[in-house]
Design brief:
There is one protein chain. The protein is an alpha+beta fold. The protein is built from 18 helices and 26 strands. The strands form six sheets. Strands 1, 2, 3, 4, 5 and 6 form a six-stranded antiparallel β-sheet that branches. A six-stranded antiparallel β-sheet has the order 9-8-7-12-11-10. It has a five-stranded antiparallel β-sheet with strand order 14-13-17-16-15, with helices on both faces. The longest helix is centred in the N-terminal third of the chain and has 74 residues.
Length: about 675
């Protein structure tokens, strides 16, 4: 009896153990699903926030670059003089090399659609390109504002009535300093077409997604205006408006003061997850969003996989428990069956991922022969699937990179995985840059290498464009016609351009980090003035003179203009200054003053008659420039410094007054009277 009941007891224990384990795995799977859902949502949240932050920083940098262009024009006396020359003589060939070349350079390298030059009345004088129109009432209104305020105006996006397209203008007054202050001599208008940079920047999305998009909005009264074209609706830029009362709109949430992550409904009424970021120093808010359906549809795939895994685990547990009942044979069969199931599941999963991946996926054997390749590999390399399976990893490399393949393979064997950049070669011989992630794996005792290869052509091109942009603006900074430097709240220099270094004879490392007053002849006095400006006790100055000390000990007289720099909270963080060498000008002024003094002294000492004087042969009167005859003494007195005292010579005395003459002819008698 006991031996007969023993198998049933073991069976009952095994069934109970199976039920407990199955229930426990079900609960664990449910808990894991909850964590997976939150983690998945958190991951997408972080992605959206990172994308929004990246785009805001790109827009902010783009706006700062344009603001720097405007400030460079506004603060440059050289540009002001060139504008004044052109407006005074717009057909001069020498001037064409001046302001017009500058405008063409701005338009070409600054990323502007067109550059306009207007006179002090707001009338268009010329433009680059020459065929561009100035625009309708909106553009004229911005120009009138600059004429009245004489300040830089960075317009918002607006639809031009004359051209029926969206524009953004940066309008800079050109001021010339004089004895009576700054005089407006003209306006330079820098026009941007947002279709060329701003809109593509906003609309680009770093990873493939059927619903994700970013958009730019601003508030006008109780409405939200969409500034760019939308992915799911056409012709919406500056046309689509939604009321602020839509509380579920991410844009409404943003204008109510919230930033960061939010859930709501977009302009279509579709539920979305969104990241909200304000663009600094602008009325814009950037929204990066993705449909919740897309997010959770991906999660459902994970859920099905999780259910399958839990089911497999429960099934495996059942088979393991049954194997105890079925002894060693059942264990062996169950193990083989489970291994086959796992292999098939892995093979299906790999096939699915490989087929639909956006990256190239290639499986190599130990000799680096291609064993498997996905559809993206076929498209990228230009080979047919059969041709790819006849190739090796060396066949996909250009000759100049084949030598590094052995070293890369050795590192993969040591580290089991490796990420590096290289170049791949297509069937037609063309090449493209890639980022390769290689992992070593072992299947049934055989060594394989799986490579995930990403085409990074666009990323490399973007990096190259960014480098060229930075080099161009650095060149403009270093080769400006005036010296330029910045110093922080402690008065130590943080930036200085090549013009100023050459002016003073120092190297860059000899000036960076040094107190700015160290290079001034009146060091201690200037130190007190600068610290007073940095503390807000003194305002910045325009066009004041200083004497600076060159490295070799000589001095240079300069004209300085400085401006305060503020942080995001409005606190003074430093000063930006331009300096212009006026040594030659001061020397010329001193020589001119000396010459004037010498001439005045000479005129005060010398005033003599000269030239041919018409005089009457009889009465001795002199004829003046007007034809009148004057007594000789009157003429001489009026045309020289001489004065007369009257008397009678001896001959006239004898002739006119003989009674008064003495008999002695040798004695002269002379009567004088005043």
């Amino acid at each position: 009896m006991t031996k007969a009941r023993q198998p049933s007891k073991v069976y009952g224990v095994l069934v109970l153990a199976f039920l407990v384990l199955s229930f426990g795995m079900g609960i664990a799977g449910f808990i894991y699903y909850g964590h997976e859902k939150e983690d998945f949502k958190e991951q997408r949240k972080n992605e959206l926030l990172a994308i929004a932050d990246l785009k805001v920083r790109q827009i902010e940098k783009w706006r700062e670059e344009r603001q720097r262009d405007a400030e460079m024009i506004f603060n440059s006396p050289f540009i002001a003089r060139e504008v004044e020359k052109y407006l005074g003589n717009p057909k001069g060939s020498e001037i064409d090399e001046g302001i017009l070349s500058f405008m063409a350079s701005l338009q070409m390298y600054g990323g502007y659609e067109s550059v306009f030059l207007l006179d002090a009345m707001g009338r268009l004088k010329t433009s680059i390109p020459a065929w561009r129109g100035l625009g309708g009432p909106s553009a004229q209104s911005l120009i009138s504002r600059v004429l009245n305020e004489r300040k830089i105006v960075f317009s918002d996006l607006y639809r031009d009535e004359a051209q029926d397209r969206i524009l953004m203008d940066l309008i800079v007054p050109v001021l010339l300093s004089g004895n009576r202050g700054n005089r407006l001599i003209g306006i330079i208008l820098l026009r941007t077409d947002p279709l060329h940079f701003l809109y593509p920047l906003i609309q680009a999305w770093p990873i493939p997604s059927p619903t994700a998009e970013s958009l730019l909005v601003r508030r006008e009264g109780d409405e939200i205006v969409f500034l760019n074209e939308l992915r799911h609706q056409r012709n919406t830029a500056l046309i689509l408006r939604l009321p602020m009362s839509g509380q579920d709109l991410p844009s409404s949430i943003g204008f109510l003061g919230k930033q960061g992550f939010a859930e709501g409904a977009d302009y279509r009424g579709v539920k979305v997850l969104a990241a909200i970021q304000r663009v600094p120093d602008s009325p814009w808010i950037l929204i990066a969003k993705i449909d919740q359906e897309e997010i959770f549809s991906s999660l459902r795939g994970h859920t099905h996989m999780l259910i399958a895994v839990v089911g497999l685990l429960i099934l495996a547990t059942g088979f393991i428990i049954a194997s105890v009942w079925r002894q060693q044979l059942a264990v062996f069969r169950e193990t083989q069956y489970k291994a086959e199931l796992d292999r098939q599941a892995l093979a299906k999963r790999y096939a699915y991922l490989a087929k639909y991946a956006n990256d190239i996926i290639i499986l190599y054997d130990s000799e680096l022969r291609i064993v498997e390749a996905n559809e993206r590999a076929v498209t990228s390399y230009g080979y047919t699937p059969d041709e790819l399976l006849q190739l090796t990893a060396w066949d996909l490399r250009p000759p100049e990179t084949k030598a590094t393949l052995d070293k890369e393979l050795e590192r993969v064997r040591e580290q089991q995985s490796l990420v590096f950049e290289t170049v791949q070669q297509r069937k037609d011989g063309t090449t493209f840059p890639v980022e390769v992630s290689v992992g070593a794996l072992e299947v049934e005792g055989k060594e394989y290498y799986q490579s995930i290869i990403r085409d990074i052509t666009e990323r490399k091109q973007a990096e190259e464009r960014l480098r060229r942009s930075e080099e161009r603006f650095r060149d403009l900074f270093d080769n400006a016609p005036v010296g330029y430097h910045e110093f922080g709240a402690e008065g130590r220099i943080t930036h200085v351009n090549r013009t100023e270094l050459e002016m003073l004879g120092y190297r860059l490392e000899e000036m960076i980090g040094q107190p700015v007053w160290k290079f001034n002849v009146e060091g201690e006095k200037i130190r007190e003035t600068i610290l007073a400006k940095l503390s807000g006790k003194l305002p910045p100055q325009r066009a004041f003179e200083r004497v600076l000390r060159r490295k070799e000990g000589t001095t240079v007289q300069v004209l300085i203009e400085d401006r305060l720099l503020h942080d995001e909270k409005g606190r003074i963080k430093g000063i930006r200054a331009t300096i212009q060498d006026i040594t030659e000008r001061k020397k010329i002024e001193e020589e001119r003053e000396k010459l004037i003094r010498e001439l005045q002294e000479a005129l005060a000492k010398v005033k003599t008659l000269g030239g041919l004087l018409p005089i009457c042969a009889s009465c001795k009167k002199i004829r003046d420039d007007k034809g009148y005859w004057n007594q000789i003494e009157s003429y001489i007195r009026d045309h020289s410094e001489a004065e007369f005292s009257h008397g009678i010579c001896p001959e006239c005395m004898k002739k006119l007054y003989p009674d008064f003459c003495e008999d002695d002819e040798g004695k002269e008698d002379e009567i004088h009277r005043p």
